[in-house]
Backbone:
């Protein structure tokens, strides 16, 4: 019998799970196909000894700060899963270290608190930094509004409500900071979270950074007791509860297309499933490059081959048999750069020997801690160096390098407290997630390939009828919260911009 569905979702990452659940809750018959053994994609977990490591951020969900709801709180309310979640306050500050001059900067979360601290570091910066933060708030609200517009941009409303947003919309972060006449050092510290977006100040748009930075500053110290993998499991259980069909260990090897319209998929188990609507939580590079066999529209091929891949990660997961306090280490988020000049760092990060680091640390169990250090490099820095013969030696060397850099930046020795250690290279991410080059950032957010242009161009990029993209390669970019929101956005688009749509 022909297995037919209203929608087939490929990939059960954050975005795929939210898309599938949103559609299933509207009584669509949804099939969710996942190539891995578990749901979650990057939001998965693994166990080593007494430690459970979340492969994504553990509780970096910008969930809310006790007074105000964070970015995804209302999404989780709409999905009716909030009763299963437990918000907590964790970190009070985040840190930026620079290796070349051995400096460290510690900033509190909270907009006003951050402002006061910045004035301590750069006297006389307060006025212009305050203006940056006010505009960032406006950008944040405007972007949330755009996400709610479900693909139908209302420029009149945007102009009326958010005039600064539109004024800054065409600028890169670098141009925006200059326009606001922010002193150089303050501008470097303000943009010091650029690694969260994987795109440096001269490439990423002012809007993208201002949105993320405002969210991070307002809600970054808060999260959930649940790990990102716990949330993946909750989403998949809800999906099943509403009658959805989930098939893990089912990789899609072909998307069937007839007369430029999708008709279904073929899996590596040679099963065929049919649908006129497919949501892909995987890269357009993969879809147009190998999953669609014939007659791929030239424009689709050109577009994907012109896009730059986002940063590639090397991650080391450390389980320590000491608490962070006893090691005098920071809990929460830190960034470790060689210098605060992101343009220079971006250039250098095309070499494997020059990663910049994102660190996430938290106390677990009694007197134990997890530290996750991710070094980011660009393009084929890894592929150029790796061979079949040297892979394990190279992996070991990279792992040791990350630990050394961490110890050098913090001035604290962690090697003696190491209890468990696991590492992942871009090859690991590529193997498990199948994203090109092993990137976890989708395409690099840059110039005309950033949040706003992607949203505006989306309708022109529907090259094959019935084929929709979501997830880290989509319009909302790559972060965990953005991928959840993008999952809902794309589902709503399918539903005709109206979640009550009963038209198909
Ligand atoms: C350590 C770490 C740090 C990070 N830091 C940041 C950060 O600072 N800023 C930021 O923006 N983002 C960051 N991210 C990335 C962010 O978390 C991810 O981009 C996001 O979780 C991706 O969600 P997704 O829905 O796009 O799908 P993914 O998690 O990529 O899932 C895609 C799913 O599709 C499945 N799949 C692939 N091919 C097929 C196929 N052919 N058939 C069926 N299934 C298939 C895969 O198995 C996978 O489960 C980080 C991630 C990690 C791990």
Residues:
């Amino acid at each position: 019998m022909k297995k037919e569905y209203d929608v087939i979702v490929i990939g059960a990452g954050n975005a795929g799970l939210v898309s599938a659940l949103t559609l299933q809750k509207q009584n669509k018959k949804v099939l969710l196909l996942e190539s891995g053994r578990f749901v979650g994609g990057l939001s998965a977990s693994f166990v080593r000894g007494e430690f459970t490591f979340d492969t994504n951020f553990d509780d970096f969900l910008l969930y809310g700060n006790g007074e105000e709801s964070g970015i995804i709180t209302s999404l989780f309310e709409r999905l009716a899963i909030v009763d299963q979640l437990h918000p907590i306050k964790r970190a009070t500050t985040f840190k930026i270290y620079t290796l070349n001059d051995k400096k460290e900067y510690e900033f509190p979360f909270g907009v006003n608190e951050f402002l006061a601290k910045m004035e301590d570091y750069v006297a006389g910066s307060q006025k212009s930094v305050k203006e940056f933060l006010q505009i960032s708030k406006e950008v944040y609200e405007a972007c949330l509004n755009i996400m709610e517009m479900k693909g139908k941009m209302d420029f009149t409303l945007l102009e009326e409500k958010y005039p600064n947003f539109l004024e800054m919309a065409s600028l890169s972060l670098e141009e925006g900071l200059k326009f606001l006449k922010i002193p150089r050092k303050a501008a470097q510290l303000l943009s010091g979270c650029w690694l969260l977006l994987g795109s440096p100040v001269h490439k990423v748009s002012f809007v993208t950074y201002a949105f993320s930075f405002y969210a991070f500053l307002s809600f970054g110290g808060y999260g959930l007791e649940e790990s990102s993998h716990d949330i993946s499991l909750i989403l998949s259980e809800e999906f099943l509860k509403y009658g959805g069909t989930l098939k893990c260990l089912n990789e899609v090897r072909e998307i069937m297309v007839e007369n430029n319209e999708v008709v279904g998929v073929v899996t590596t188990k040679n099963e065929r499933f049919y649908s006129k609507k497919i949501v892909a939580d995987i890269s357009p590079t993969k879809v147009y490059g190998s999953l669609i066999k014939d007659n791929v529209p030239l424009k689709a091929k050109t577009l994907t081959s012109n896009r730059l891949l986002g940063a590639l990660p090397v991650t080391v997961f450390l389980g320590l048999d000491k608490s962070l306090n006893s090691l005098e280490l920071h809990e929460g988020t830190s960034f470790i750069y060689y210098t605060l000049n992101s343009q220079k760092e971006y250039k250098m990060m095309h070499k494997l020997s020059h990663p910049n680091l994102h660190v996430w640390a938290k106390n677990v169990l009694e007197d134990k801690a997890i530290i996750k250090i991710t070094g980011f490099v660009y393009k084929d820095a890894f592929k150029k160096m790796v061979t079949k013969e040297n892979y394990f030696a190279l992996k070991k060397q990279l792992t040791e390098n990350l630990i050394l850099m961490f110890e050098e930046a913090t001035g604290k020795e962690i090697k003696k407290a190491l209890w468990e250690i696991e590492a992942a290279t871009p090859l690991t991410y590529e193997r498990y997630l199948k994203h090109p080059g092993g990137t976890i950032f989708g395409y690099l957010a840059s110039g005309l390939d950033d949040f706003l242009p992607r949203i505006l161009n989306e309708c022109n990029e529907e090259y094959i009828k019935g084929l929709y993209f979501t997830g880290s390669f989509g319009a909302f970019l790559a972060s965990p919260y953005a991928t959840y929101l993008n999952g809902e956005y794309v589902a709503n688009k399918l539903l005709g911009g109206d979640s009550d749509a009963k038209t198909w």
In short: The longest strand covers residues 368-377. The mean pLDDT is 93. The chain has three domains: 3-44+227-307+449-494, 110-218, 312-436.
